[in-house]
């Protein structure tokens, strides 16, 4: 099996700033304790394609509710590879939990962004069965799968990324 990536935590400072933006009700000491509890993504079994990303806090989403979760994770990826993020199968199947951007695409150059390549997950409970989703801190919320990709023969892009989501279209 080819090894092409490595997960890291973002810095405490980056996590603190990003977490405060999503959850202003938390105090700094609580956020730093949450940071210390963050686990790097892992595969559940040797046959698993997906690396489970874990929620750093308890979440509860009623039908129609949305939450933006800073994971505290960044990933170094070899060029010509990408990380795709998808809802964990059970959460999508049981509750219709959806990623707001359908599939999260983490490019290899995102690692060097101004925000340290901090991976966020924005989820919506799209249940049409009136089900509330509850996930405890430390449980998986999405899975990441690495894919190799190619480019066209006459590609001449030289621009470099400097920013987060949507920064390549600015």
Secondary structure elements and their pairing?
Elements: E1 5-9, H1 12-22, H2 28-37, E2 51-54, E3 59-61, E4 66-70, E5 73-77, E6 81-87, H3 89-95, E7 97-99, E8 104-107, E9 120-125, E10 133-135, E11 140-148
Helix pairs in contact: 1-2
Short characterization:
The protein has helices at 12-22, 28-37, 89-95, and strands at residues 5-9, 51-54, 59-61, 66-70, 73-77, 81-87, 97-99, 104-107, 120-125, 133-135, 140-148. The chain is of the alpha+beta class and 170 residues long. The chain has one domain (5-149): Deoxyuridine triphosphatase (dUTPase) (Deoxyuridine 5'-Triphosphate Nucleotidohydrolase, Chain A).
Report on the structure:
The chain has 170 residues and is an alpha+beta fold. The chain has a single domain, classed as Deoxyuridine triphosphatase (dUTPase) (Deoxyuridine 5'-Triphosphate Nucleotidohydrolase, Chain A). Helix content is 16%, strand content 32%. The chain has 3 helices and 11 strands. The protein has a 4-stranded antiparallel β-sheet with strand order 2-11-6-8. It has a 3-stranded antiparallel β-sheet with strand order 4-9-7. It has a two-stranded antiparallel ribbon with strand order 1-5. The longest helix is centred in the first third of the chain and has 11 residues, at 12-22. The chain is globular and about 50 Å long. The mean pLDDT is 93.
């Amino acid at each position: 099996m080819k090894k092409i990536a490595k997960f890291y935590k973002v810095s405490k400072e980056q996590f603190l700033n990003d977490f405060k933006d999503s959850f202003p009700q938390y105090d700094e000491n609580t956020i730093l304790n949450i940071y210390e509890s963050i686990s790097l993504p892992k595969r559940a079994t040797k046959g698993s394609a997906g690396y489970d990303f874990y929620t750093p806090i308890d979440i509860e989403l009623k039908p129609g509710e949305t939450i933006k979760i800073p994971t505290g994770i960044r990933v170094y990826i070899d060029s010509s590879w990408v990380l795709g993020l998808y809802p964990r199968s059970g959460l999508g199947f049981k509750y219709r939990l959806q990623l707001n951007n359908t599939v999260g695409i983490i490019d290899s150059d995102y690692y060097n962004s101004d925000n340290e390549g901090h991976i966020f997950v924005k989820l919506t409970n799209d249940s049409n069965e009136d089900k509330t989703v509850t996930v405890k801190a430390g449980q998986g919320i999405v899975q990441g799968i690495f894919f190799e990709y190619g480019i066209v023969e006459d590609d001449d892009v030289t621009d470099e990324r400097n920013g987060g989501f949507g920064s390549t279209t600015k």
